[in-house]
Amino acid sequence: MGYESQISFTLDTICPWTYLDKNRYKKTKYNDSDDKMQKYITLMTTYGKEAGIEFDFNGTVANTLDAHRFIQHYQEELGAETADKLVNSLYAQYFTHRAHPSTSETLLKAATEAGIEKATAEAFVGDEYEGLSETKMLIREQVSNGVDSVPYVVIEGKRRDFTLEGAKEVGEYLKTLQGVAKEST
After folding, report:
1. Which comes out higher in pLDDT, residue 28 or 154?
2. 3-state class percentages of the chain: helix first, strand second, coil last, to nearest 5
3. CB-side exposure of 109: number of CA atoms within 13 Å?
4. Distance, CA of 59 to CA of 101 (rounded, Å)
5. CB pairs under 8 A, 24+ apart, for 86-92?
6. Of the four listed, 24, 27, 28, 87, which is most buried by Cβ atoms within 10 Å?
């Protein structure tokens, strides 16, 4: 396994040199190829349309820790169904409406769509430390379990668990679920 390095930028938002350098770095991720990036966007757009998603890849790429903290809190407080509604709202806001993935506005809109009382959601969002250490601990736990990419899906079976890494076609999910059902009889 190769070395996984971390790249940290120290920058100033009014310095033209850091702006220039950041853009140069961004181009290296696709070997300075706008063509490769366009192919990726075309492919994902096609996959999205097949799944009923109208991707818009022009939104802000940003840290999503607050969104994870938000989802985790309400999953623990109100259950998986509420967490699922939050996730669906956050996906739609980010991928189809260019909403920032972790702003208070985005999180509160998701809360409203999930049926969470506005005052309760505002109080949680306003306290940036509530649930933060627990969320970071859960992230570290996933990393220590070997999870280094998403989606990472574990389907619990009667005799063993089934793991699916990366985006899968519907047929692969059906095959896995049929395997769980077969082992459970």
Report:
1. 154
2. 60, 5, 35
3. 15
4. 9
5. 86/110, 86/111, 86/113, 86/114, 88/113, 89/113, 89/114
6. 87
Q: Report CA-CA distances (Å) from 23 to 19, 35, 49, 89, 114.
A: 6, 16, 30, 30, 37
Find the helix or strand (DSSP H, E) in which 155 lies. strand 152-156
Tokens of 71: 């989802």
Average pLDDT over residues 22-44: 73
* Residue 70 and residue 87 in contact, taking contact as beta carbons nearer than 8 Å: no
The model's pTM is 0.77
- Which residue type occupies 27? K
Is 51 strand, coil or helix?
A: coil
Angle at 67 between CA 100 and CA 58, to 5 degrees: 25
**Nearest-angstrom CA–CA distance, 42 and 61:** 18
pLDDT digits (tens, 9 = 90+) for 74-120: 999 999 999 999 999 999 999 999 999 899 999 999 999 999 999 99
Give mean pLDDT, residues 20-25: 63
For residue 142, what are its two tokens?
A: 């996933």
90 contacts 125 by C-beta, under 8 angstroms: no
